[in-house]
Give the backbone structure.
Amino acid sequence: MSTKGEKTRAEIIASAKTLFYERGYAGTSFSDIVDAAGIYRGNIYHYFKTKDEILQAVVDQRLDEFRALLAQWEAQSSQPKERLRLFVNMIAGRKNDLVRYGCPIGTLNTELAKEQRELQQSSKALFDLFCDWLTSQFAALGHAKEARSLALHLLCRAQGISVVSHVYEDAKLLKREVGKLGTWLDEL
C-alpha cells in the first residue's frame, strides 16, 4: 500500500476508533466512518469491506498501543508495585473521557457481548492483555499463588470505577475511588 493509502487507512481507523468509543459500535454506521474520515464512500472499500473488518483494525491498533504503553511502563520502572500504580494512574489520567464515555475497552466489550459475541471474542484480547500483564506484576510482587485473582480484582475495580463515575458523570468520584485503589496497592 502506498504512503497515501497507508495514511487513508490510518484515518479510517482513527475515525472509527473515536466513533466506536463515543457512539458505540452499533451506533456507528459505515457512512459515519466515511464522513468522519473525509473520504468518498467508494474509496473505503479499497481498505475495508465491512464494518467488522474496521472493528478488527481498531482492536489491533489498540492492542499495539497498549503493548507499547505496557513496554513504556516496564522501561519506566523496575518495581512491580510502581508499575501497578502506573496502571491505576492511567485511570485518573483519563478521567474526563471515562466520565463522559466510560472505558473504551469496557464499553466495547459490554456492547459486543450482548448481540455480537463473535466480535466480542476479538475485543476481549484487550482485557486479556491487561490481565496477563497485571498478573505478571502481582507475581513479581511476591503474590504468585494469587496473582491472577489479584489482577482480576484490580480490573474489576477499575471497570467499576469507570462505569459508576460515567453513570453519575462524576469526576470527583472517579478521583476518590482511584485514590482508594492506590491505598489498596500500598497495603499489599
Remarks:
- The chain has two domains: 1-49, 52-187.
- Residues 157 and 181 are 8 Å apart (CA to CA).
